[in-house]
């Protein structure tokens, strides 16, 4: 989708309107889907407190406010601030010239071995007896 946006403020206004529209559509769809769902009798939980911090920040008119919610750190101009440690990690990863292949279902053997030693100790009988496994969900990294 092409956008005719020339500056950052226009882009943000467009993005804000898009998000409001998307949220309205998504919310009504969720309510409809929930009402006809097997889980419709389950009471809705409370709003996410962490995301609520960002919402409170947006509503606050104090010019000295600081956003402590989830997301990117920001500088005094509201632009994302990338920590030097993150830049260094990116640089190290980029310099390895990795092939971008997915790991096998068993993961990266060296990483798994080192993680097990970190978690259980170098001389763990559990590692020696091959009684250790790791699990993670797909979007972990």
TrEMBL record:
<dbReference type="InterPro" id="IPR004839">
    <property type="entry name" value="Aminotransferase_I/II_large"/>
</dbReference>
<feature type="domain" description="Aminotransferase class I/classII large">
    <location>
        <begin position="64"/>
        <end position="136"/>
    </location>
</feature>
<dbReference type="GO" id="GO:0005739">
    <property type="term" value="C:mitochondrion"/>
</dbReference>
<protein>
    <recommendedName>
        <fullName>Aspartate aminotransferase, mitochondrial</fullName>
        <ecNumber>2.6.1.1</ecNumber>
    </recommendedName>
</protein>
<dbReference type="GO" id="GO:0004069">
    <property type="term" value="F:L-aspartate:2-oxoglutarate aminotransferase activity"/>
</dbReference>
<dbReference type="Pfam" id="PF00155">
    <property type="entry name" value="Aminotran_1_2"/>
</dbReference>
<dbReference type="InterPro" id="IPR015422">
    <property type="entry name" value="PyrdxlP-dep_Trfase_small"/>
</dbReference>
<keyword id="KW-0663">Pyridoxal phosphate</keyword>
<dbReference type="InterPro" id="IPR000796">
    <property type="entry name" value="Asp_trans"/>
</dbReference>
<keyword id="KW-0032">Aminotransferase</keyword>
<dbReference type="InterPro" id="IPR015424">
    <property type="entry name" value="PyrdxlP-dep_Trfase"/>
</dbReference>
<keyword id="KW-0808">Transferase</keyword>
<comment type="subunit">
    <text>Homodimer.</text>
</comment>
<dbReference type="GO" id="GO:0030170">
    <property type="term" value="F:pyridoxal phosphate binding"/>
</dbReference>
<dbReference type="GO" id="GO:0006533">
    <property type="term" value="P:L-aspartate catabolic process"/>
</dbReference>
